[in-house]
Amino acid sequence: MTTSHPTVSSSLSRRRFLAGISAAGAMAALSGCGGSAGSARAEVRFYETKPEAIPYFTGLAKDFTSSQEHIRVIHDSSSNLSASFVRSNPPDLGCLNYNLEMARFMERGALSDLSDMPAAARIRPDVQQLVNQYATYPGRTSVLPYSMAASSVIYNKQIFADHNLQVPATWREMIEVCEKLTAAGVTPIYSTFRDPWTVAQGLFDYTVGGMVDVEAFYNRMHELGTEVGPHSEVSFQKTFLEPVTRMMTLAGYSNEDAPARGYGDGNTAMAQSKAAMYMQGPWAFGEIAKAETDVDLGTFPLPMTDDPADRKVRVNIDLSLWIPEMSTVKSEARKFLSFLMQPKTQNAYNKEFLAFGTTKDAPPVTDPRIAQMQDYYDDGRFYMGASQFIPRTIPAENYIQAIANGASIEGTLRRLDQDWARLAFRQ
Amino acid sequence: MSDTTTKLPATPRDRSTRKRRGKYGRDRANWPITIVLVLASLTVLVPLYVTVSMALKTTQQAVSGSAFSLPSPLTFSSFAEAWALTDFPRAFVISALVTVVTVAGTILLASLASYAIVRNWDRKLFRWSFFYLLATMFLPFPVVALPQIKLTGIVGLDNPMGVALLHIMFQLSFSILLYTAFLRSIPAELEESAKLDGASTWQTFWKLIFPLLAPMSATVGIFAFLISWNDFMMPSLITSDPAMQTLPVLQSMFQTQFSNNYNVAFASYLMAMAPAIIVYLFTQRWVMSGVTQGAIK
């Protein structure tokens, strides 16, 4: 072929072309270095992604920026958190849900110590303790809980009143309520088995949390590690067998189309008073309210034993604040953190988003939909959801969904044990 | 004249053939195929109908549990809300920039590389570089995500420019596969005659080969456009400045585990879909001809 013998001119222009390419590449590389030059204010990147709260926090960031001379807070609601840590430019202040995934950053010392901040001293010790249930880093208080979501059984007050039902205080009463409702032709519980997380955070967490000391259980499970199995002191197949069996008893009172229903369907059904009870957290209230019906809802902790004193509510850390070690504007980020932790700012958030305060001086909640949980929260009668302590490597939510849809309880829990032991062996 | 004379005696036969052809001809519909086609078009039209009607509903209607009901009252507030929440003009410009750079870069680099490979097929280096490039098709982005995030961060490419470069890179192997198949069908004699007229390799490529590649460039460009415009993962991981984020990433805020915003989400999706549909309307001629280009060599 003639073309395989390059002429002098063609090789020259090819070289020129390559030079052009590399110049373009260099330009591109430089373009990343421009940006924030010329501003006297230090930029604090504030990471908050809870969708319904984005406008609220954007407003706070603006207010704070206008009150300051040397700080500008930029609200980031779209970045990828893990990627930013990998790239070594994490946000300067994080404000997000705290869970096992987030705890990994803390465990590895990526988050700075906030224990010397005045705001840290105001947080209830038993609430701060919840952070440590996931992981700890010696000598540091790296994460400050900002708001707590308390969840329990959502119930339709009107349906309960129509059928002369009292809020159940024991397991037996709970079953009676379900039986009476069934007899009256009302669906007792609206379940949404299509979304695995709704089974895990609802039915599963409530039934397990009501019978098992979740924190102690997982502490022991971590100690046992590879030894978890049919003969170990605690195990999913042994400790969780009874709660999960009871969970299936309750699941039997669900709507018939539960396997085909998702979270959105559940909210719609509750808004239209199609069922008496719903196992969801306070986040569902906002969604139910979108339908703008006049449904009257309340909450009560699911009674799992025959002693009313055993009732507890499930809590999770709705938002927590932390400042990464890698941040270059820590002191400025701390100023904004203090601003957010001011009682009037924090309480206003909790009021608007149906959350409970984390400080000793937090006022009680006033919204009638969650007010019934206040006493439990104040007395520390709460637990964190059992499903939240299983690493994502184990598809626990899907296992739980399988149980809800009829898989063998013993077999599935045994598999959870095996997965747990295998993961412990790998680590 | 002879035409009319020959046609006249053929008329009765014509009529009979039309009758016989009638079974599969224009006169009677082919019902099985029609039903399949109707079903196929429904799979597109039904979701599209839901998208449009949802976008025009109020929030209250959107959660009423009946997706197929007509919106009443009709409201355009979802579009306004989506516009404001995603900062639509800015996100749109960034998405468009990334896409344009990707499409142009992919067409340019892939055509050049394929030309070099095909015309130097007898050399080991070129042959093996082809296999090397093809092998990268087996590497999905998530596998190399972490090192890519680190690398782009180090060299200052953690911005839309870096996303576009990576899009080009990941499109390269597939595009080269398409181009090389097409290039092999272009006779070498064409180039020889250009050479005889004194054209350099560079001129041969730009004046002869590249115009001949046009249908394939359209195909490659369309694939690059779709992948770049719709991509979520790469911009989400690579771009570090939230103000430089592309549309699909910003739209993810409308649907989370705990909340749905159907009407706003669908309004936003419609706005984001518009360019893809408009591009398709104008280029469908080339899409259809282009898609079959690589099918037979």
> What global shape of chain A is seen?
globular
Task: Give the end-to-end Cα distance of chain A, rounded to a whole number of Å.
Answer: 59 Å
Q: Would you list the SSEs of chain B in sequence order as H and E?
A: HHHHHHHHHHHHHHH
Number of strands of chain A: 9
The number of distinct helices of chain B, counting runs of at least 4 residues, comes to 15
Q: Structural class of the helix and strand makeup of chain A?
A: alpha/beta
Instruction: Compute the separation of the termini of chain B in Å.
Output: 44 Å
The helix/strand class of chain B is: mainly alpha
Q: Which of globular, elongated, flat, extended, rod-shaped describes the shape of chain B?
A: globular
Low-confidence segments of chain B: 1-22
Largest interface in this structure: A-B, 52 and 53 residues
- Oligomer type: heterodimer
Largest sheet of chain A: 9 strands, mixed
- Poorly predicted runs of chain A are 1-12, 25-38
What portion of residues of chain A is helical? Answer: 40-55%
Which sheet architecture does the biggest sheet of chain B show?
none
Strand content of chain A: 5-15%
Describe it.
- The complex is a heterodimer of chains A (427) and B (297).
- With 427 residues, chain A is α/β, with parallel strands linked by helices.
- Chain A is built from 19 helices and nine strands.
- Chain A has helices spanning 8-31, 54-67, 81-86, 100-107, 118-121, 125-134, 157-162, 171-183, 196-211, 214-224, 236-239, 241-251, 263-271, 283-289, 330-341, 343-352, 374-378, 396-404, 409-426, and strands at 42-47, 71-76, 93-96, 144-156, 187-190, 275-280, 297-300, 313-322, 382-384.
- In chain A, strands 1, 2, 3, 4, 5, 6, 7, 8 and 9 form a nine-stranded mixed beta sheet that branches.
- In chain A, strand 1 (42-47), helix 2 (54-67) and strand 2 (71-76) form a beta-alpha-beta unit.
- The longest helix of chain A is centred in the first third of the chain and has 24 residues, at 8-31.
- Chain A starts with 7 loop residues before the first helix and ends with a helix.
- The relative contact order of chain A is 0.16.
- Mean pLDDT of chain A is 88; it is low at 1-12 and 25-38.
- Chain B is mainly alpha-helical.
- Chain B contains 15 helices and no strands.
- Chain B has helices at residues 2-7, 11-21, 31-55, 59-62, 77-85, 88-119, 124-135, 141-154, 160-183, 188-196, 201-212, 214-230, 233-238, 247-251, 262-291.
- In chain B, helix 7 (124-135) crosses helix 9 (160-183).
- The radius of gyration of chain B is 26 Å and the shape is globular.
- The chains are: A alpha/beta (427), B mainly alpha (297).
- At the A-B interface, helix 1, helix 3, helix 13 and helix 14 of A face helix 4, helix 8, helix 9, helix 10 and helix 11 of B.
